[in-house]
Structures are given as structure tokens and as C-alpha cells.
Backbone:
């Protein structure tokens, strides 16, 4: 994993965070980006998962 990015988004009543991580494909060796919008408390778990 080479790079991690976290951006905070605010809506009317909920606070959400968009997390983006770079994941290396085991087959080709190419890197892809995985994006997810979630609650700020869940960001650390998302970034720790492979």
C-alpha cells in the first residue's frame, strides 16, 4: 500500500468521510484505488483491511 487519502464530507445532519486507498493486485501487480464513504469512526478499520 503506497498512499492513503482521507477527506471529510459534511451533509445536513450526518458527518461522513470519504477514504481512498491504493491496493496492489496480486495477479497483475497493478495498483487500483478503492473508495468508500463512511462514518469517521470506521476509517481506521477500512485502511487496515487488505
Residues:
Amino acid at each position: 500500500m503506497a498512499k492513503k487519502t482521507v477527506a471529510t464530507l459534511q451533509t445536513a445532519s450526518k458527518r461522513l468521510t470519504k477514504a481512498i486507498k491504493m491496493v496492489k493486485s496480486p495477479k497483475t501487480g497493478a495498483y487500483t484505488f478503492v473508495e468508500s464513504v463512511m462514518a469517521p469512526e470506521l476509517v481506521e478499520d477500512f485502511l487496515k483491511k487488505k
The CA atoms of residues 27 and 50 lie 15 Å apart. The beta strands are 4-10, 15-24, 31-38. The chain is about 10% helix and 50% strand. The first strand starts at residue 4 and ends at 10.
